[in-house]
Every structure is written in structure tokens, then in C-alpha cells.
């Protein structure tokens, strides 16, 4: 499958943090797409472009929520 091949390529070239579950797992795919988004990777598979669009819409809210948790728990070194 073209999508799995591209996910493997993204995992090997763009992901600095190890991904549990691999590319076949939904959680692994999401993790790879988040890391690819942060790395500004170019995608070629239409289905991955569509999934990346969904990730783009939600990852900002997720990171903002993590930032708020860090502030509320006074983990200031993590919030800077």
C-alpha cells in the first residue's frame, strides 16, 4: 500500500521520537503525522494529505492544552 510505504519513509526520515505501535496502528500513524507536521515534511499520498489536514486542525489545540497543564502544575521549565 502506497500510504504505508510513505508512512515508513516519514518514520525513518522525519521522526526523532520513537513511535510505539508502528505505522499500521492508528496511534502510530497519528504520532508519525504529528512529527511530520512539526518537521514540515512534504506528503505525496492523497489520503495522508487528508489525514495531515485533520492533524493540523487538532494538534495546535492539543499542544495548547499540554501547555496549560504545564502552567497549572507549575512546571515552568517545560513551558518556556
TrEMBL record:
Q: Which Pfam families does its entry note? A: Sec63
Gene3D superfamilies the UniProt entry points to: Sec63 N-terminal domain-like domain
What organism does the record attribute this protein to?
Rotaria magnacalcarata
Q: Write the protein's name.
A: SEC63 domain-containing protein
Record domain SEC63: where: 2-78
